[in-house]
Structures are given as structure tokens and as C-alpha cells.
Write a structure and sequence with these properties.
283 residues; alpha/beta; 8-stranded mixed beta sheet; 6-stranded mixed beta sheet
Amino acid sequence: MSGCLFFDIDGTLVDSEHGEIMPSSSCLEAIHKAQKNGYRCLISSGRNLGGLKEYRNLGLDGYIFSDGAGILLEGEDPILTPITDELVQAFVHQVMDEFHGEIMMSTIDEFFASPNQYDEMIESVKKSAMHSDVSVEQLLSVFHMQPLNDYQGQAILESDVSFASDEIEKEWLKHKDDRLEYVSTTASYGRGGATTGEITMKGITKGHACKKVIEMLGCDKKQTYAFGDSMNDASMFEVCQYGIAMGNAAEELKEQADYITARIECDGIKKALQYFEIILIHI
């Protein structure tokens, strides 16, 4: 029975804030060594499957996407748990019209963003491109971003939401439908006093998907490891035997971690795999 390693992408495998699209060669080499040593290595991301296009060629064993609403093991059909159409229509109206929030909804391969969120995403991508050799067009293609007005009723797996203040978020939570799961990511992504969070169907989280994958692959629960940097990774830490926070992770996540490794730009993944003796240190 083999072990399982689950890797978040942005802020964990990839320094996306500085325009990186793919993990470093050192990071990938370490992950492939772990596979040779009998571990199943999977992505576990808030990105949708379309946003994982480049990662499908890395030789990994599977992908958890859209914060656990999608699971894909290589050679299998994807397992999807979309938000019901009724609930999508209701929370879009509630968040945007009643609480003046912003929304970025995710299908299996597209994103639909409210006007301010769309403009902010464009500006963020432009800033990232300034720090890398990757063009704005290449970065935008990774996210498959479209205006919310172009949404035509496609199945929504997950939605990011943001509110102007903590008080507004708390008031919205009083009215949130109990059939929806909500994970606050303000500690990781909040800025300028705004709050942020992620919506899926009730019970659908990265951790829920990790548990299902562990069962499907028959992995040894005592040899399960989750790597992350933001609060949507906390549910993985609860399910896996070991939760590893990156050195650049949110402080709240570090408090829940079993181990804190180096920052992403300091080869944190490789150093954690060496610390847990998943791969050997070559002197």
C-alpha cells in the first residue's frame, strides 16, 4: 500500500504572484523521486481543470480541482459535484445585488467574473507579467477568464466571493443557504480591508476530495501528506496524516500545520520531502 502526496499549486508549487506558471525543475525532480519511491502524487487546487492544462503533462497521478468539486485520476472519467443551478442563481443575486460583493465562478474549464473582479484580475495578471518573461496573454490563457455577462448557465463547481468589509461578510453569512459550503480565505488573500471566500456544495472541500482519493487509490492513511499555503488547504491538513505549510503560508494555516517548510522560492517542497524522508538527501 502506497502513500499519497497532495500539492496545492499557487503559493505552494508555483510562485504565481511573480508570474511563474510551472513549478521549478528542482521541485518537479523531487516529486518524481517521491513517485519512484512508491508515493502517489496529486495536485489539489482551487483552479478548475482548464487551469490545470499545463500540469496534465507532468506525469502526476491525479488532480483535485475547484476546491474539491472535481476529481480526476489519470485514465478515469472526472468526478464532479457542481453547485445546483437554483443555488447558483440565488447566491449570485444575493452576493452581488444585496451585499454588493464580487464573484468569480468556475466551470470545469472556464471562469466568469463580475465586472470589478474581472478588471482586478486583468490588472493582477499585468503586474505578474512585469516580473516574468511570460506575456499577459499567456497568463490570461491559464485562467480562461471571461466576464460574468458571458455566462450561459454552464455547471458551476466553485465560486470565489469577496465583500468590501468583514462586517458585510458576517451579515451575508447569516443569510447564506445552508446547502452551501463556505471557506474564508481572507487570511490568505484579503487585501485593503476586503474579505474573500470560496463557495462549493455543502461538504465539498479539498479535504473531502483527498479522503475520497485516498480510499480510491488504497493509500496508507499514515503515509498521507498535504502541502499548502492558504486557508482553503486547512481541510487537507485535517484529513491527511501530515499537513505541511509553506514558509510563505498564511499564519493561520501555519498554526494548523504539523510542519512548516521553507518558502516556495527557497525549495520548500523539496526540503519537506527530504525532512520526512520521502526522498533522500544527497550529500
